[in-house]
Amino acid sequence: MIHSLFLVNSSGDIFLEKHWKSVVSRSVCDYFFEAQERASEPENVPPVIPTPHHYLISVYRHKIFFVAVIQSEVPPLFVIEFLHRVVDTFQDYFGVCSEVAIKDNVVVVYELLEEMLDNGFPLATESNILKELIKPPTILRTMVNTITGSTNVGDQLPTGQLSVVPWRRTGVKYTNNEAYFDVVEEIDAIIDKSGSTVTAEIQGVIDACVKLTGMPDLTLSFMNPRLLDDVSFHPCVRFKRWEAERILSFIPPDGNFRLLSYHVSSQNLVAIPVYVKHNISFRDGSSMGRFEITIGPKQTMGKAVEGVLVTSQMPRGVLNMNLTASQGTFTFDPVTKLLSWDVGKINPQKLPSLKGTMSLQSGASKPDENPTINIQFKIQQLAISGLKVNRLDMYGEKYKPFKGIKYMTKAGKFQVRT
Amino acid sequence: MNYAFRLFVTFSAGEIFELKAELNSDKKEKKKEAVKKVIASMTVGKDVSALFPDVVNCMQTDNLELKKLVYLYLMNYAKSQPDMAIMAVNTFVKDCEDPNPLIRALAVRTMGCIRVDKITEYLCEPLRKCLKDEDPYVRKTAAVCVAKLHDINAQLVEDQGFLDTLKDLISDSNPMVVANAVAALSEIAESHPNSNLLDLNPQSINKLLTALNECTEWGQIFILDCLANYTPRDDRESQSICERVTPRLSHANSAVVLSAVKVLMKFMEMLPKDLDYYGMLLKKLAPPLVTLLSAEPELQYVALRNINLIVQKRPEILKHEMKVFFVKYNDPIYVKLEKLDIMIRLASQANIAQVLAELKEYATEVDVDFVRKAVRAIGRCAIKVEQSAERCVSTLLDLIQTKVNYVVQEAIVVIKDIFRKYPNKYESVIATLCENLDSLDEPEARAAMIWIVGEYAERIDNADELLESFLEGFHDESTQVQLQLLTAIVKLFLKKPTETQELVQQVLSLATQDSDNPDLRDRGYIYWRLLSTDPVAAKEVVLAEKPLISEETDLIEPTLLDELICHIGTLASVYHKPPSAFVEGSRGVQHKRLPPRTGSNESVESPESTQPVVGQSADQPPAVIPSQGDLLGDLLNLDLGPPASTVSSGPTSTMQMGAMDLLGGGLDSLIGTSFGSPAVMPASLNAPVGGGLGDLFDLGSNVGIPCGSYVEPKTVSKYPAQCLLFSLRFSLLKYQPFISYLTISSSQVCCGICEE
Lengths: 418, 756
Hints:
By secondary structure, chain A is an alpha+beta fold. Chain A contains 7 helices and 23 strands.
């Protein structure tokens, strides 16, 4: 199981270590540093690194490497999932998961890690159980504690720990009972030169914020549940009921949680909400190149496309770019060769465009690779797959909760090849 | 709590003294803050063991936070101060009787983490109590503690009968206790492979399946991994387990999903293929695997390595999902390379157009490694899908026109493989290749080019000039190129004897007299002797018709694949090696095998056998030609075989190695030498030779001298190259006494061959 954990920042310093079994020397990380040096980008450090006596499994998040040391045959996914859970927990506790935040809260971090893993076996990873055991630091609580001498550590066994619904604590009370659901879809797509779709898929999630008193039992039904043929559920969802009736029935955790995530694959038709017209050309022997892109809405069901941000990694041979944008602002970094154009909202009557020339390294042959255009956007009030919630009902409690559902579509990895 | 940050900078002897004073303070609050400071410096790796007695003194307190902090300290330092650690025992024993279950559990948990022999004796009684505690939280913590104790003192655990208690906990009423008991037993069983600790029978399986639905996600992983070790009695039991495991495929935790996939992949082996349920199960497996690819890149990587295995075992599961493996330009490199490999495995006539278009796109990307693999992939597609060969070749020519150096070199290497698969079909491209001769600076590309020139010497007017130009710097070339050049010139000589006599003399003397490389000298001498004694025979041998290279040379050998399928989701599946090969401490791990299929008649048209391209590989060993070490092939032939059967002059096994590269990505050195050897031995190596050799040299049991045309895969995978080489050299000795040196160590030879 997981032997030790090292936190390494991007400059290669170990700033925290935790051992669950015997102490493993820091020098084991040398193998990791070697791999880190070899990788061109921190993202490219391989997640599983073998060393003579151990295996190092790492994740890279928030510019920190979380390196787990293991000694025996352990499912790597188990370790990676756990590490991500650790990061999520830190973020939950400290607001941000940064080196400074971790160093500031080093004792809480240590207590958390101790609580999350015992002898390498996960112990408590549910956020609401952890929060009963170790209260998150807040300015107010720190002050109160210093004055009254009380502690951050709960001294009672968390109620959820062993119940049939371990994700929910008992005795929850709210004056305003509310349940909000956000249907968020991210569209991943690769569009080729000619504008046709190479792949397109939708990663959807339903995130919930439920603040309801007592033990409410919710059911959520969809207008078109057939869309959801590839789903992953939060453990609270009753799978049998879904299989039989395509209805989500569950006792929700308290607070924020991800109810389900789903995947609409390329076989189904995925609507592409924006298109890009581009004309990027380099000529052999010339030190100038032409650059022109226009972006417009395509299948948006009448909703506005907002928050559009276009980025593109230009070839190394491009020295500078001389462009004019019809709207928004753009920057080109001559060092990293990254072009970034903050478009904002697309007005269908007057399509935003970015045109001009590129100056190329003189004498060099024209760049071999064509830049790929990356697009980010948001569409409010729309789930691009067409998923719609039909109704939400609550059983088991008497009060009338306030219910709300929001839809949103975002670009995930949306790439246009040129 | 900002003081923690300050501590990272300075920590002097004066401060230690100050801390000591604070730790011994009467004020609780001050004590707690002091312990916190100690912990903070411990986390950054500073040695605060000098404070041991002072910290332990703080242990007896009602304040739970303080207690936990002291425990944290104890776990880290008890080992370095065993005598002092005894001081803590009394408090532990007392805490194990505390009315608060949280404190009881905490005490038993911490005690197990103190790895001091003397303490373990005192641990036994409290642990026994806690294993039978009324509170499940304490029981589940105690279960893990047994594993900890076993790690420190295995004999003690057995003597005290804790293992039996642990086994009883599998029938506990609380699912979390069951899960932890399973986890603890699995860990203990890992160090005792034959202990039969997890005695799985239908009753206990039933209990596990019930607990599976109710325990935490981590517990589910433990239980699923344990279930995977069970062998159902018949296909009905197998089906019923599958039915109860299938819902786990929809779990949000990817490790749960992959463990469930493992159980299903293993148990579906037992289901008759004509069963409706079998088809349904296949359908159900695809979506969760695809979903794993939308997770974080690290998860994707592990998932892809496993999908690589699954695609080889059951290609039908993902055959329609090609698009999800298309590479996004900001994927990390390790994900890109894995996706590429799977794309080729899934390539078929139906989707080849799409795949080729993608590959061409990748070949213009920025990352050099990735571009190279993409170019190689185009070649592999050509070899795999015959109908696409022409398009692949024209795509490769387009790429050569870009004149990007590494693209050109890579393209030439793969075109050589295409020639070996479709001889005399595409030589019209040779002219284009020759144009790029000067830009080749990598040995592999040079060797490939030389092979092409030699092979088609009769159609290249200036073949002699081309080869001569390489000969100038003969001694600076790598062995690979030297060997290739030697063979190519001999071929040229046999094809155009009149103009090239001088050239062949020159190369033979370079190879035999001026070279230190035994392989090169060997080959040189043999050619020389052949040419001087019987030119006709030489022609028959050197210019013999070559067997075509197979498209599936990179497949994992079937028995290994089956074993790896049993290890889906583990490190073994990431490295594509059996755990016995690399996991430390796995003393004599048993090889896992897929259960045999029951009650099915294999003759029924199965989805696998209707899959012509990849499918056949699952059930039968792939027909791999002995491309591994063609040197071997030639020499063997020269010596023993009828001249018509195998090759001379084979180019190095770039096809196979290329495949390995792709497969392994950055890891290929790991996958290592034992991997590329699902070898079917050349038929010409016949029994008398093996026997004679065995007589000559008592090579013992570990070097399995092959006595037939097929060698047990296990033996081969261990020492394929050595044993062949041995037999080779000795048989040469018998027939050609002038080869007098036999001093080369086998390891050296082996390396030479594998690196080819």
